[in-house]
Amino acid sequence: MVSARLAQLAVTVINEFLQAIQFLTRLRLARQPEYTAGMAGAAVSWYAPTGLIIGVLMVLAGWICSFLVPPFLVSAIVLGVWVAITGALHLDGLGDCGDAWMGGHNPERMLEIMKDTSCGIGAIVAVALVLLLKFSALTLLIGQGDWSLLIFAPVLARISLSLVIHYVPYRRAEGLGSSLQANLNFNAIVISSLLMSLLLSLISFQAFVYGVFACGIAWLIIYRFFVKPIRGATGDVYGALVEVTETLVLVGLVASLN
Fold it and tell me: In this predicted model, what pLDDT tens digit does every residue of 79-99 receive, in sequence order?
């Protein structure tokens, strides 16, 4: 009986992890997770480890390419791999938020713009600025040769995302956040976040401190310009949070090296 329960628990945990990977990345899994009600919410606790996978793949791609091309091109390749792995999922949310900030004069209008699939000037500027900052920071970090620092941004951004999903009310009656906030396991989120934080602090405590500080600044920006005006969060806000956090963490890592 005990062994059967442990086996079922292992299957559930694996399915939740695979669900997180399937949702946050474009990686093709040999084994598709068996979806059950509430799994999307339970999978949130695996967002940070999924960020670690993204970071490791970035490092591998960059390290291999570093033997073939100059650092400047390596940075472009790493950024391209980063976007490809995530399928530009979060960049899409950032773009929608950029348009909403440029054209929304009240909460209802901002929410309406976020649902619009067209791309405006706000989206173009926001995405271009984030990619430019990421590329510049990656060039400096890769030039230092400390590859392990590249995993900080995707991990810390997804720790922030999992906490925001738990704490910030979802603004729409239906949608992405509704399924994510259903059946959340906050204790699992805390344990996952602490373990990933411990790993990062062991790699470089100074870089970890700068990264956490950058996460705080990113949250203040997202709160001020999006969460506060619309009195909650949306899937697009989640995407913007990840992109802004990743960008500022990279900038913070560069600052930690000076």
Answer: 999 999 999 999 999 999 999
